[in-house]
Amino acid sequence: MDQDQQTYVRAVSRSLWGLAVQALVAGALLFVGMWSEVAAIQVGAWYAFGGLMIWLCLVVVYQQHRLEQLETMETEQLAQRHGTESSIFETSADDLAVARKRLERLYRWLVPITSLLVAAYLIGIGFWLMVTHVSASAATIGMGEGVDGRVAAVILIGVALGAFLISRYIAGMATVEAWRALRGGAGYLMGASMASFLLGIAMAVTYWAQVAWPLKILAVGLPACMLLVGAEIALNFVLNIYRPRKRDEMPRPAFDSRILSLITQPESIAKTINEAINYQFGFEITRSWFWQLLSRAFISLVGFGLVALLLLSCIVVVEPHEQALITRFGEIRGGPLEPGPHLKWPWPISKAEHHDVQRIRELPIGSKAELLRKDNGALAPILWDRPHTKEKPVNLIVASPISTARTDPSATSDENTTPVSVSLVNAEIVLHYRIEDLKTYVENQVNAEATLSVLAESEVTRYLLAHDIDQLISLERIGADEQLRQNINRRAEEKKLGVSVVNVLLPSIHPPQKVAGEFHAAVQARRELKIAVELAETEAIRTLVAAAGSAEQARMIVRQIEDLDDLKRQSASAEAIADKDQQIKTLIESAGGAASVRIAEARAARWEVENAERGRVMRFAAQYDAYRQAPRLYKMRRWLEVLASGMGGARKYMFVGKFDQAILRFDLKDVVGDYEMLMDAEAQ
After folding, report:
1. Phi, psi of 269 (to 5 degrees)
2. How much is the pLDDT for 99?
3. What ranges in 515-646 are assigned the alpha helix state H?
């Protein structure tokens, strides 16, 4: 290298200047940000601190350049002293080039690593700050209490002016080939200067106008700029890997941002573009004949391109599933264009608005919460007592027409105090529609879909208020979709929306999750009641069949008995009552059931009792005749019969002769064998 030694000494000193000014700007922004509690100024401090890595890298690199220059001068002095033809000296000269090798390692490792660290810092911190501040309120972004915005604005603008002067000075030095690497640090310092200046202006506006939106914009805009610069540095790093290089060429660091260079030296935008192109190609392509021809014909080519674009804008191609409307100066001209090619005036005089009229659009009504899905993407089952939506569902009001009818419409508001029973339901209702009349759809409403949504919600509410919850979750749900479709279509035609409702889907109408258990209990109670009623009816039919042979025959007999009771209450004639009683008897006997059997058994028992009593009467009469013929004989015979029947099972002893003084001894034990005992036990 033929640069003077003082070249790199000045580069090192200016790098130290930039490092000090960068640290001063970052410290000032951090101090003002912490004092004022303004998030946007703290974001500026985060950005400014990232430049310290660049200036430290430049200090190390240019210090090594200075050492490498001293080493080169010493090598030349040794060559002049010992001559240039000594092979021994040539070998020792290569061994002495330690500083140059170290400089090459710095360009190979330190500069790329610094660029990656800066890119990662800007992208990571920028993303974190943007996520933090993009949803923050103006009160959170604004100044804290008791902060004088004028003092903060003066400090920020003063720091910005000082940093601007230093950055411009260093950027001017960067036009020298040996100091070109300083352009990266100068550009980053200029970015910090611009951030400090804008923050000072925003603080002044916030203080005097009492508005917080400037700080809100900067709190989000500065992280976005950090992301942009970080992405550019990362892209430069990737491009530097594949860019061809010349021998002994000083590479341009990846942290040397082209965007910040445009801010630092706005007067050399064209030169910067040419340098960037030459740098990426590895040679001066801007001096080639092709580039020169392209430069001379650039205006003509741009004009030809504009004319071609204008001519192409005269052609409108409508897809098979579309219709298009042509607007001229914002006013719709003509009707919808059918599929195919069409001509119009060029842009911006005339524009074409394409609309997909065949696509079936989906519009959620009521609870717009998204349904949960399984791992395979299918919809999860909708259970009343389980969450089945990602967000909290919206409750809709339903009212019973019966309770509403109890209110007297002719009564005054003071008299009519009967409350109307209402309930809450969760309903997932989906409306499918398509564009029917495109011109009406575009002309009559600013947002036809929003209007349709309002109309549909109104009709859904009207329909729900006309039915109670028991009806909606049962049979009334079957025809609800068609009824809603007709009602919404009628309202859409009245409002001239130009749409046609294809269908209305009701995936689920159910009570809120908190009371789903009570509904399940009520359903269970109804089921149990129905089972009990069916069991009772079954038992009744079984009883009727058992009593009369068939349920119909039993009911006929019951009706005849009721008619008989009516005749008795009406004091009807005895003949009519007897005839009705005979009819009932005939029906019962012909039925063949348990009643006819019981009557037959009673009749048989009666005949048995009558015959038995008749036999007793006849036997008594015969015994009475026998008594009158021979009273003593009859008495003796009856006495002996009674004695025989009474003493039939008793043990009897007979004594013959006189036994006045006899002593009688009796063994009253019964001697019974095993067989007799077994027979007595079985008998018992």
Report:
1. -65, -45
2. 67
3. 516-548, 551-569, 574-591, 594-629, 631-646
Q: What is the mean pLDDT of the chain?
A: 75
Report which of 367, 414, 411, 371 is spatially closest to residue 389, judged by C-alpha positions: 371
Place of tokens 């903060």: 152
The residue whose two tokens read 């048995």 is: 608
Q: Report the predicted TM-score, pTM, of the whole model to 2 decimal places.
A: 0.41
Indicate the SS3 state at residue 365: strand
User: Which residue type sits at 276?
Assistant: A
Q: Euclidean distance between the first and final Cα of the chain, in Å?
A: 141
CA-nearest of 15, 25, 8, 27 to 57 is 15
Please state, in angstroms and rounded to a whole number, the distance separating the CA atoms of residues 626 and 617. Answer: 14
d(CA 359, CA 355): 9
Quick one: DSSP state of residue 397?
E
Give the number of C-alpha atoms closer than 13 A to the C-alpha of residue 385, restricted to the C-beta side.
7
pLDDT of residue 413: 43
Three-state DSSP at 412 gives coil
Q: For residues 257 and 231, is the Cβ–Cβ distance under 8 A?
A: no
Domains along the chain?
5-264 (no CATH), 302-356 (no CATH), 361-373+381-406+419-511 (3.30.479.30), 521-592 (no CATH)
Rg (CA), the chain: 57
CA distances to 443, 447, 498 from 437, in Å: 10, 15, 5
Q: β-strand 315-318 against 331-337: which pairing, if any?
A: unpaired
Q: Name residue 509's beta-bridge partners.
A: 427
pLDDT at position 509: 73
**Hey, what amino acid is at 133?**
H
Query: What is the share, in percent, of the chain residues with pLDDT greater than 90?
Result: 0
- The answer to whether the Cα torsion of 132, 134, 137, 140 is positive or negative is positive
Residue bearing the bigger pLDDT, 187 or 149: 187
Q: 508 pairs with which residues across the strands?
A: 428
457-461 long-range Cβ contacts below 8 angstroms, 24+ apart: 457/365, 457/366, 458/491, 459/484, 459/487, 459/488, 459/491, 460/365, 460/366, 460/396, 460/427, 460/429, 460/484, 461/396, 461/397
Asked, as a colleague might, if the bond just before 348 is cis with ω within 30 of 0, I would say yes
Q: In sequence order, which ranges of 396-515 are alpha helices (DSSP H)?
A: 401-405, 438-443, 448-465, 469-472, 480-495
Compute the distance between CA of residue 485 and CA of residue 507 in angstroms, rounded to an integer: 15
